[in-house]
Structures are given as C-alpha cells and as structure tokens.
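PROTOCOL LOG
Step 1. Enter all chains and additional molecules of the complex.
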Amino acid sequence: DAGVTQSPTHLIKTRGQQVTLRCSPKSGHDTVSWYQQALGQGPQFIFQYYEEEERQRGNFPDRFSGHQFPNYSSELNVNALLLGDSALYLCASSLGDRPEYFGPGTRLTVT
Amino acid sequence: GDSVTQMEGPVTLSEEAFLTINCTYTATGYPSLFWYVQYPGEGLQLLLKATKADDKGSNKGFEATYRKETTSFHLEKGSVQVSDSAVYFCALSGSGNTGKLIFGQGTTLQVKP
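Step 2. Run joint prediction.
Step 3. Record the structure below.
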C-alpha cells in the first residue's frame, strides 16, 4: 500500500502565477483534506472533499480552490500566487470523518 | 473558536530522559484529541489519539491522557531515544465536526546521545 502520495515534491513559482498540486489518497479512502503549513507553524486547514464536493472550508480566500475526481484523487489550485503562499502543502486522506494519514507534502516557493 | 496551545520549544533532552510536552485546548463539546509527529523532510504521522475524556492514547512508548477537567492532553515518554528527535503537534477535531483538524504550533524535540 503506497499510502498518501503527492506531486510534485517541490516547485518554484513567480508571484501572480497559478499552481496545481495533486494528491492520491490511501487505498480505500474516500475523503481528502488539504492543509497549508508555513515554516515553523502548525498546519492550517484549507478544505475537505468528499464525493467530489467541497464539504468543509477553512479561512482561505477564493484563490484557493480544489477538485476531487471519481477515483478519489484530488487537486489543489492556487491562483494569483502571493509570496505568503510559500509553504508546505499537505494532503490527508481518510475513510469517513477524521483524516489520519498524511502525505509527504509539496513544498511551494513563490518568488 | 476552537484552539490548541503547546509548550514552546525547542526541547533538548539527553537520551533516556523523561519527556513531557504540554498541550491544552479550547473547544466546545467533546473534541477528539491527537498527537502527530513530523520527522525532518517528511509529512505528519499520527502518533496517538483519544476520543473521549479519561481515554489514554499510547504508541511506541508515548502516552497521553485526555483530561477534560484541565482541558489538557500532555504527551509523555519515559525514556527518549535519539530517533525520537522530531517536531510534535497536538491537534483536535471538534465534536460534530466533519474532520477538520486544528493544530498547535508544534514543539521541536532534540535528543542528544
């Protein structure tokens, strides 16, 4: 079992650009959540997807959007990147409510 | 709103020392409580959890007891190893909540041989 996988591992973008991050949940899991972890901080909840719909959302602007596919994989899109969007983006999956399995994350650097 | 507060780090201990990392929370109702560990360059791993008052979560020698009267969930280990060096996060998931985790700021533990 590969667990939760995320791609890419690292990427560098310029302010104003758009980025798409990808996540494949652990086998058998149907719920995917996304978190942003700034350097030296705890993760902050962005949103959660279940049955291809956004079920819950944290305090993030509309520049952050997502999608879940029929195979339960998910994408996180961020538009009009700001320097402050530089962070580790974590994907977590679960079967049911509470995510317990996190991926290794995607390190996004905005210059 | 709900929140989690952890003791400030970094915490530096010698191998075989006793570890305590304090965690307190603010939440309505009956949250579930978690400890996650993050090793350098990696994502988060669930270390242990407790879902109701007086429950004790345990794993790999680590323990934490859900204390509703003091709204605490302190992490303890009797004898730390160098391999325990990592960042530890306390987190909660609110009652009736569909999975959103609220994390503390993390506590860095460094264990020296």
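Step 4. Note key features.
The CA atoms of residues 83 and 94 of chain B lie 32 Å apart.
The longest strand of chain B covers residues 86-93.
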